[in-house]
Design a protein that fits this description.
The complex is a heterodimer.
Chain A lengths: L1 H28 L3 H4 L1 H24 L7 H27 L25 H15 L1
Chain B lengths: L9 H5 L3 H15 L4 H17 L13 H28 L8 E6 L5 H13 L3 E6 L5 E6 L5 H19 L2
The chains are: A mainly alpha, B mainly alpha.
Chain lengths: 136, 172
């Protein structure tokens, strides 16, 4: 049983490591910032996830302790990765105002929030009022 | 809205966010990484005090209706993240970068509540080859960058049917 467990743990670590390497290769290989952003947000989550599951299995099966820290790490990773990616993307848009014509139209009377101001007070108020009514 | 403040019941006053209390206790127990009664008491104290102190930041409760559906949505996303990793890894390794059809797409939003839009944007960032990058100024459509999307219409439809439709049931 211990051998099988060790095999599974090693496999998880190796597969996780492979995904981290692929993520890093993506950073080097892809041509511009926006496509590079895809590599670390995704390829790395599975890499770290594999290492975390391996760690849980190791402590549970070999050291005989139940370790659930790893669940927290996964949860925080899932919370922070998209937020970071969103911030990097917004910073990129801010730094490259010349990209504005390349963006697709919003399909709304207002532009993208990075370049255009939010609707004026009246419209915002109306939207809030609608929201409040719906909740009451 | 103004007279609502005077009509707060006992539970609204002292346990404004039961779900947040539960999350905080669970978080505390996970951080301790072992079960002790003392730890549970400390967790309960934190879980009761923090929501009361911060309740003026969140006057409303999150508008979640269907908790079972929320759970199955989480499992779906967890599965999609694994698939996303494999897809992106394959794109990185076996496709020359020039052949990738990177593009921006606009996802018009039917969702209204900020919580639901946040969850949708986060989900889109975690799943196959898409990163949510910006909101329209009125918060009614989402700018998404696709790593490899030969067909923009189809990519948008997939995001709307797979995630937004489910979120609409969770956050009515």
């Amino acid at each position: 049983m211990a051998f099988w467990l060790e095999l599974v743990i090693s496999l998880l670590i190796v597969v996780g490591g492979c995904f981290v390497i692929v993520g890093s290769v993506g950073l080097v290989k892809l041509p511009d910032l926006m496509s590079r952003l895809h590599a670390p947000t995704k390829a790395t989550t599975l890499g770290v996830g594999g290492a975390l599951v391996a760690s849980m299995l190791y402590f549970w099966g070999i050291e005989g302790k139940v370790s659930i820290h790893e669940v927290l790490i996964t949860a925080f990773l899932f919370l922070t990765a998209p937020v970071t990616a969103h911030f990097v993307a917004k910073a990129y848009l801010h730094q490259h105002p010349e990209k504005k014509p390349e963006l697709p139209p919003t399909g709304r009377p207002y532009g993208w929030s990075t370049y255009d101001a939010p609707p004026d007070g009246a419209a915002g108020q109306a939207a809030n009022g609608e929201e409040a009514e719906r909740k009451d | 809205m103004a007279d609502k403040r005077h009509k707060r019941t006992f539970w609204e006053r002292w346990l404004p966010h039961p779900l947040m209390t539960l999350t905080l206790v669970l978080l505390w127990m996970l951080l301790l990484n072992s079960f002790t009664v003392g730890g549970l008491v400390m967790g309960l104290i934190l879980g009761v005090v923090i929501p009361i102190i911060t309740s003026s930041f969140w006057p409303e409760r999150p508008p979640i209706r269907a908790y079972g559906k929320a759970l199955s949505f989480m499992l779906l996303v967890a599965w999609d993240v694994v698939v996303a990793n494999v897809i992106v890894a394959r794109l990185i390794l076996f496709h020359p970068p020039e052949s990738l059809k990177t593009r921006w797409v606009t996802v018009p939003l039917d969702l209204k509540s900020p919580e639901a839009i946040t969850v949708l944007a986060g989900t889109i960032s975690m799943t196959p080859g898409t990163v949510s990058s910006d909101l329209s100024a009125d918060g009614r459509s989402l700018l998404v960058h696709c790593l490899d999307a030969p067909d923009a219409e189809e990519a948008v439809m997939q995001m709307k049917t797979r995630y937004e439709a489910r979120l609409k049931e969770i956050f009515p």
